[in-house]
Amino acid sequence: MCTSIVYSAGDGYFGRNLDLEVSFGQEVVITPRDYAFNFRKLPTMEHHYAIIGVALVKDNYPLYFDGVNEEGVGMAGLNFDGPAHFFSVEDGKDNVSPFEFIPYVLGQCKSVEEAKQLMTNLNLVNINFSDQLKLSPLHWLIADRSGKSIVVESTVTGLHVYDNPVGVLTNNPEFPQQLTNLANYQSVSPAEPANTLTPGIALNNYSRGIGSHLLPGGMDSESRFVKETFTKMHAPAGKSERENVTNYFHTLNAVDQQKGLDEVAPNTFEYTIYSDGVNLATGTLYYTTYENNQINAVAMRNANLNSSDLVSYPMLNNQAINYQN
Description:
six-stranded antiparallel β-sheet; Penicillin V Acylase, Chain A; CBAH/NAAA_C; hydrolase; Ntn_hydrolases_N
């Protein structure tokens, strides 16, 4: 399970929590402009926008979990097991495998609107990366510097592109149902609630934060969607990059998963393997891992973006503790 957001303070930030029970050896990967993306059913993309994100590199191919291009468009794939359905190759369509979808969009789109246009003839096809690496059932959040975002879902009824007014995505159910469910929590507030239960009779507000009493806190995707939407909608904007990055991670950490709380198989637990966020103007990727809470950064523009060679940085997993005495 996972959570992805676009946070519009400052330059704007895009990223996600990756929640799984096993790590894949993912790295921070910069794909420069002249790296050749060889698509299975489309012509090779020999020149494109540079991309930074978190990926598993296999056979010199970056399998991106999430990424942002140099124009400030971000995209993340999240688990969508059950509703996800990918199709056979269809003549006359732009046939793209889901493992190619992130570079297909980020390589050539400067905005969400351009991404929408790119997908008017799209067919997400059931082609595995290899016999060992099968397709994952995914749906995707796409956002840009304006704060606009969309959700892309391929189900048995076809390809669906939804405007996303809240800029949050988790997992099941299908996105329209997630939005509908928010109506059940529209009275949740950071403020003290008005007493409409017993008008004229004072009640004892035994605690601060009673306005958020009904906010769900489970590890399930519907609860995380509600809680992260509430958290993001009320998150403050900082006055500096450092403050905005700090606020961003606090916002995303509201729904991170700790080991031991989400059992997906006997004695096997899902947890937040990493959290990341990319500044949509500068292309700097910030990340933390479960083992290392320190915020680490990789700047896309410090790499040679006119190269054809991938640039990879291993994620730092050793906890950084600042001893003061």
